Amino acid sequence: MSLTAILCLSLVCITPLVVPLTADDDDDTGTAYDLLKGYDFPAGLLPKGVVGYDLDKTTGKFSAYLDGTCSFSLEGSYQLKYKSTINGYISKGRLKNLKGISVKLLLFWVNIVEVVRSGDELEFSVGIASADFAVDNFEESPQCGCGFDCVNGQVRKLRTNPFVSSS
């Protein structure tokens, strides 16, 4: 199986990730989450914990700042990492030249370099491969350390005994 095929198959397992900001000409006081909507993106592209951002409205160049690095696993199947600073260019429905977000595909960490919105779908690209996901998957922001499986900021642990049957 080729590396491209492996990346494509692995990328299909991805859901909530990635970056960004926005700005509205009338409102520069909102959070990065609030402002994402101005560029037609859901807030869940960013994890919880963004402490600030910069945006040059003329070029679309942005930086989003987290209070440190952020990583988490989603549904135990893949891992995401955000650096403390995420950079790129944003325009209506498009994030490009992204730096600071990576996803683990099989044994390799690859950078998410672009996110494009087309209707109700978001296409995530790692350069040589891409995958589409419904925008609805990104309504909620994941939490650093535990993603969506959190209880009081910690990964929820299921207590099960593999030697005991429920039947």
From TrEMBL:
InterPro entries referenced in this protein's UniProt entry, alphabetically: At5g01610-like, DUF538
What PANTHER family does the record tag this protein with? OS05G0362300 PROTEIN, T31J12.3 PROTEIN-RELATED
Kindly indicate where the leader peptide sits in this chain: 1-23
Keyword flag Signal: yes
Q: Which UniProt keywords apply?
A: Signal
- Tell me what this protein is called: Uncharacterized protein
Look up and give the organism this protein is from. Answer: Tetracentron sinense
Tell whether Transport is among the UniProt keywords: no
Transmembrane regions: none
A Pfam family hit: DUF538
